[in-house]
C-alpha cells in the first residue's frame, strides 16, 4: 500500500503480502481528506506544551519533591512534553513537506515512541500510587517515598526507550509514488517479524498490562471510598471515573485498531479494502490518543488540591491572575483524602 502525504504517526505500512502476490493498489483519496491532522497536531502541541511546561515549572521551582506522587507527576509531565515536542515534525510531514536526510525521521519516530510508552506507564504508576495511598494508607508509607518513586520512574524510562529503539533505527525517509515519506524500512525478510513485534508490544502495554492494573487499583479504591463517610467521597469517585474514562476514550480505540492490524498480519481479513480502512482508522484513533497529553495536566495536576494551592500562591504575585489564585486557594483548603497532589 502506498503511503500518502498525510502519513500518520504509526505509518502506513500495515499490509504484509507475500513477495509473489500481486501489488495491492488502493484508492488513497479518502485519506487525503484527513486535512485536520496538521491543524490538530499544532493545537495539541500548543496546549500540551503550555500545560505540561506549567506543571514542570511549579513542581521544580515551588514544590518540594518528597513523595512518589510528586515524582510520578513530574515524570508524566516530562513524558507528555516529550511527546508533544515531536508533533511539529509530524505536522510538517502531514502538510506534504519532505525531510532531507534520515536523522529528522529517526528522531521523530524515536521521540514519539518513547513518549507513547512512558506516558501510558506513568499513568499506570499514578494509579498504583493512589491505590497504595488509600487502600494501604499506613503500610505503604515507606514504599511511597522519593527513593522508590525515582527507582520506578527509572525502570519506566529504560523500558520505554528499549521498546522504542527498533522504530528509531528502522525509520527512514523512503521514496515512493507519493514522494519522500518517513516510515519504517525493515530489512528484507524480517518485515512481518518486526511489524508483529511492534504491534504486540503496544497491545501488551496498553491492553494486557496497564488497563488491568488501572482497573484493579481504581475498583479497590472505589470499594474503600464506598465504606467511608467522608464528605469529599463523591468528588473523589467522580475523579476516578474521569481518569479511567479518559484512558478508555483516548487509548483503547487505538489499541483495538493495532490488534486488528496484528490479525491482518496473520492473514485474517487481509485485502486492499481492509488495509485502506486500517490506515484511516489509525489516522483517527492515533490522533485522538494524542489529545491525552493535553488532558493529563488537568486530570493529574490542576484538580489536585496541593498543586492548585501552590499554583494559586505563585499566580497571586501577578495582578492579571490574582482573582484566579484566590479562587484556587479557597477551593483547595482541607481535604481528608488528599494524597500529595490529588484527591485520589
UniProtKB/TrEMBL annotation:
Pfam families: 7tm_1. It comes from the Eukaryota. It is a multi-pass membrane protein. GO terms for biological process: calcium-mediated signaling; cell chemotaxis; immune response; positive regulation of cytosolic calcium ion concentration. Residues 51-300 form the G-protein coupled receptors family 1 profile domain. InterPro entries: CCR1-9-like (IPR050119), Chemokine_rcpt (IPR000355), GPCR_Rhodpsn (IPR000276), GPCR_Rhodpsn_7TM (IPR017452). The chain crosses the membrane at residues 39-60, 72-91, 111-133, 145-165, 204-225, 237-258. Keywords: Cell membrane, G-protein coupled receptor, Membrane, Receptor, Transducer, Transmembrane, Transmembrane helix. One of its GO terms (molecular function) is C-C chemokine receptor activity. One of its GO terms (cellular component) is external side of plasma membrane. It is found in: Cell membrane. Gene3D superfamilies: Rhodopsin 7-helix transmembrane proteins (1.20.1070.10). Belongs to the G-protein coupled receptor 1 family. This is G-protein coupled receptors family 1 profile domain-containing protein. It comes from Esox lucius. The lineage of its organism: Eukaryota, Metazoa, Chordata, Craniata, Vertebrata.
Amino acid at each position: 500500500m502506498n503511503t500518502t502525504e498525510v502519513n500518520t504517526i504509526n505509518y502506513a505500512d500495515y499490509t504484509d503480502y507475500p513477495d509473489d502476490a500481486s501489488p495491492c493498489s488502493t484508492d488513497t483519496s479518502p485519506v487525503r481528506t484527513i486535512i485536520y491532522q496538521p491543524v490538530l497536531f499544532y493545537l495539541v502541541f500548543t496546549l500540551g506544551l503550555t500545560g505540561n511546561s506549567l506543571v514542570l515549572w511549579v513542581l521544580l521551582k515551588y514544590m518540594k519533591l518528597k513523595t512518589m506522587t510528586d515524582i510520578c507527576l513530574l515524570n508524566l509531565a516530562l513524558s507528555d512534553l516529550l511527546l508533544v515536542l515531536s508533533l511539529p515534525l509530524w505536522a510538517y510531514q502531514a502538510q506534504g513537506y519532505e525531510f532531507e536526510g534520515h536523522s529528522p525521521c529517526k528522531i521523530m519516530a524515536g521521540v514519539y515512541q518513547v513518549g507513547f510508552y512512558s506516558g501510558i506507564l506513568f499513568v499506570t504508576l499514578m494509579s498504583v500510587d493512589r491505590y497504595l495511598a488509600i487502600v494501604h494508607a499506613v503500610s505503604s508509607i515507606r514504599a511511597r517515598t522519593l527513593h522508590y518513586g525515582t527507582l520506578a520512574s527509572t525502570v519506566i524510562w529504560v523500558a520505554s526507550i528499549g521498546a522504542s529503539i527498533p522504530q528509531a533505527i528502522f525509520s527512514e525517509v523512503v521514496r515512493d509514488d507519493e514522494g519522500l515519506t518517513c516510515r519504517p524500512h525493515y530489512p528484507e525478510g524480517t518485515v512481518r517479524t518486526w511489524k508483529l513485534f511492534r504491534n504486540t508490544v503496544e497491545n501488551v502495554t496498553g491492553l494486557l498490562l496497564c488497563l488491568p492494573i488501572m482497573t484493579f487499583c481504581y475498583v479497590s479504591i472505589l470499594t474503600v471510598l464506598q465504606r467511608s463517610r467522608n464528605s469529599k467521597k463523591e468528588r473523589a469517585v467522580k475523579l476516578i471515573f474521569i481518569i479511567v474514562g479518559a484512558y478508555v476514550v483516548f487509548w483503547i480505540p487505538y489499541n483495538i485498531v493495532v490488534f486488528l492490524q496484528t490479525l491482518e498480519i496473520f492473514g485474517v481479513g487481509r485485502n486492499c479494502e481492509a488495509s485502506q480502512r486500517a490506515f484511516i482508522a489509525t489516522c483517527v484513533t492515533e490522533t485522538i490518543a494524542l489529545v491525552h497529553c493535553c488532558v493529563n495536566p488537568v486530570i493529574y495536576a490542576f484538580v489536585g488540591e496541593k498543586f492548585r494551592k501552590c499554583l494559586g500562591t505563585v499566580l497571586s504575585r501577578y495582578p492579571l491572575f490574582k482573582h484566579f489564585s484566590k479562587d484556587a486557594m479557597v477551593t483547595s483548603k482541607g481535604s481528608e483524602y488528599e494524597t500529595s497532589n490529588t484527591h485520589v
